[in-house]
Design brief:
By secondary structure, this protein is of the alpha/beta class. It has 5 helices and 11 strands, in the order βββααββββββαβααβ. The longest helix has 17 residues.
Length: about 190
């Protein structure tokens, strides 16, 4: 990603598919945390547009059609990155969550989905795209200093990005720009 996040919270140069599933962050709530997720729809299958349909309320799956969820970003297995919600707004990615004693992580976080699952290794290009995106986010949001997995903020409900996610590789790509709150080892 060779772009920056603009003042409106949109990454220049990325594909935008706007989700209706967002609202405003609480007044004065700074972005401090990036949450890494893993998603595949159907489970264990990659490609297609099922994730985009989920985040835009157009899913054909009856169980998914009733959900109202979104993330700020999706990084495909090819490294292609799609933005669904402005970073200035609150995407609905974390659900019931807690980080360092603070509940409602959607209020102060950016949600980044990687196309994958708990057991399939993520692609090297996804890590590079994630590192590049995190670099752009840190430049725009000076309080963003922490990175964690969905499983770390909702351990009773979620397991993603899973054991297949290589936290050490990501850390080597981002260097000291972000403090990694949780390194989950397989």
């Amino acid at each position: 990603m060779n772009s920056a996040i603009d003042a409106n919270g949109w990454a220049n140069g990325l594909t935008q598919i706007r989700s209706p599933n967002f609202d405003h962050r609480p007044d004065g709530c700074a972005i401090e945390l990036a949450v890494v997720h893993g998603i595949s729809l159907p489970p264990g299958e990659f490609g297609g547009d099922a994730i985009e349909r989920l985040f835009t309320n157009k899913s054909e799956d009856p169980q998914l059609a009733q959900l109202r969820v979104s993330a700020h970003f999706l990084i495909r297995r090819t490294g292609a990155t799609i933005q669904f919600v402005s970073c200035n707004d609150r995407a609905w990615h974390a659900g019931r969550s807690c980080w360092k004693g603070r509940h409602e992580c959607n209020d102060f976080s950016i949600g980044i989905e990687l196309e994958g699952d708990d057991h399939t290794p993520y692609e090297p290009i996804q890590y590079q795209a994630l590192a590049d995106l995190l670099g752009a986010l840190v430049k725009r949001y000076s309080k963003l200093a922490f990175l964690t997995g969905h499983s770390d903020i909702a351990p009773d409900r979620k397991t993603d990005p899973g054991a297949a996610f290589d936290w050490q590789l990501l850390h080597s790509l981002i260097g000291e720009n972000l403090a990694i709150d949780s390194i989950t080892a397989p």
